[in-house]
């Protein structure tokens, strides 16, 4: 654009320009228009790029929250299972299941022993002082 403006100024001053320079001066307005169009296009692409980045960040945050919720759900399930299993280590609970009383189903001693052993293997003992 600066070169074209220089050609234009030289032509106004009466300098002789070669054919290529004259053709370039004739297309000055077209070049300026194309440059402005390119600037607008660049602004549009920049805006679209920013929108895309925002959408990606939002999707990543949403995905992170979903992963966190899934992990919380897994942990909740594990804690619930541990709680149920730990109850099998309590003597009054064992009596209820051996007799099928107080809302507990009847469990044969062998099956109850399996559950108790499994509970001891999978549930760490709690330190009540903590």
UniProtKB/TrEMBL annotation:
GO CC field: cytoplasm
Keywords tagged on the record: Coiled coil
Entry annotated with the keyword Signal: no
GO BP term, pick one: positive regulation of canonical Wnt signaling pathway
MF (Gene Ontology): signaling receptor binding
Residues in coiled coil: 4-58
Domain of life the protein comes from: Eukaryota
InterPro entries: Caprin, Caprin-1_dimer
A Pfam family this chain is assigned to: Caprin-1_dimer
Domain Caprin-1 dimerization: 61-129
Family: Belongs to the caprin family.
Annotated protein name in UniProt: CAPR2 protein
Organism: Oceanodroma tethys (Wedge-rumped storm-petrel)
Lineage: Eukaryota, Metazoa, Chordata, Craniata, Vertebrata
Gene name of the record: Caprin2
């Amino acid at each position: 654009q600066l070169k074209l403006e220089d050609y234009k100024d030289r032509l106004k001053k009466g300098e002789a320009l070669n054919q290529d320079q004259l053709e370039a001066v004739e297309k000055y307005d077209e070049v300026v228009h194309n440059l402005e169009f390119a600037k607008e296009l660049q602004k549009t692409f920049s805006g679209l790029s920013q929108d895309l980045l925002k959408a990606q960040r939002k999707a990543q945050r949403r995905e992170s929250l979903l992963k966190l919720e899934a992990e919380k759900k897994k942990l909740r399930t594990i804690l619930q299972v541990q709680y149920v299993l730990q109850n099998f280590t309590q003597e009054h609970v064992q009596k209820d299941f051996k007799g099928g009383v107080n809302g507990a189903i009847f469990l044969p001693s062998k099956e109850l022993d399996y559950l108790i052993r499994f509970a001891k293997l999978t549930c760490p003992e709690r330190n009540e002082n903590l």
